[in-house]
Write a structure and sequence with these properties.
Blueprint (H helix, E strand, L loop, with lengths): L4 E6 L6 H12 L2 E4 H14 L7 H9 L3 E4 L4 E4 L2 E2 L7 H11 L2 H11 L8 E6 L2 H5 L5 E6 L2 H10 L7 H17 L12 E4 L5 H15 L10
Parallel strand pairs: 1-6, 1-7, 2-6, 7-8
Antiparallel strand pairs: 3-4, 4-5
Helix pairs in contact: 1-9, 2-4, 4-8, 7-8
Length: about 230
């Protein structure tokens, strides 16, 4: 079984990770994996099942019976047979995801699933908050994408997130950042070997150009055909 070429993209919410990662995967003819979608879907499924995230026994049992399916080609995420694909892009889902992600049993369960995408000998662009530090510390290339708080809030508002104003969106993003960066297990952090890219003053095409400049230097010769 050939190991995949892994491109890890980490960073806080609202920096453009999903947009950039999808476009990079398309350019390279690779697979795009959105780990944030998995945590968001998990949070909603946990709520729907009436599981209290602070009840370790109930949470452990829920994780032990978890059936998760991620379909990159359809932008689909299913948990225990239920389709959460259209329900995850809300601030409520983000908050539930952050609570769930703070629990070690949840992270172990989802990280184990996320690592299954690296064994098919393909190019994988995986984005999240701990890809380069925890999920794939051996990734072939790692990025940490960042942006100014005001810009991040405006980008989220353009996505139609819950109809919040800029001020409230900034507060919501700041709260999520605090929770993600201070959790004991797999906190949001920039790895020492991650390439830092600030997208505050860049449009999407400029960010992608920066990414591709670095990626082309790392791609083995036999994988460069999609770039031509």
């Amino acid at each position: 079984m050939q190991r995949s070429f892994i491109i890890a993209v980490d960073g806080p919410g609202g920096v453009g990770k999903s947009t950039v990662s999808k476009k990079i995967a398309r350019k390279l003819g690779g697979l795009y994996v959105d780990t944030g979608a998995m945590y968001r879907a998990f949070g909603l499924a946990m709520r729907d099942a009436g599981v209290n995230p602070d009840d370790d026994d109930a949470l452990t049992e829920f994780c032990s019976n978890l059936d998760i399916i991620y379909r990159a080609d359809e932008n689909g995420i299913f948990i225990n047979g239920l389709d959460y694909s259209e329900k995850i892009r809300t601030e409520e889902a983000g908050g539930l995801a952050s609570k769930a992600a703070a629990k070690s049993i949840v992270r172990r369960t989802l990280v184990a699933y996320q690592r299954t995408f690296g064994n098919d000998g393909i190019i994988v662009v995986m984005e999240g908050r701990d890809i380069g530090t925890v999920v794939y510390p051996e990734a072939d290339i790692k990025f940490f994408l960042d942006a100014d708080a005001e810009v991040r809030a405006l980008r989220r508002l353009k996505e139609g997130r819950d109809g919040l104003g800029v001020k409230d969106m900034k507060k919501a993003l700041a709260a999520r950042d605090r929770q993600d960066s201070t959790r004991k297990d797999s906190p949001l952090t920039r790895g020492d070997d991650a390439i830092y890219i600030d997208s505050t003053n860049c449009d999407i095409d400029e960010v992608i150009t920066l990414f591709m400049t670095h990626i082309k230097k790392r791609l083995p010769r036999e994988r460069t055909a999609p770039l031509d």
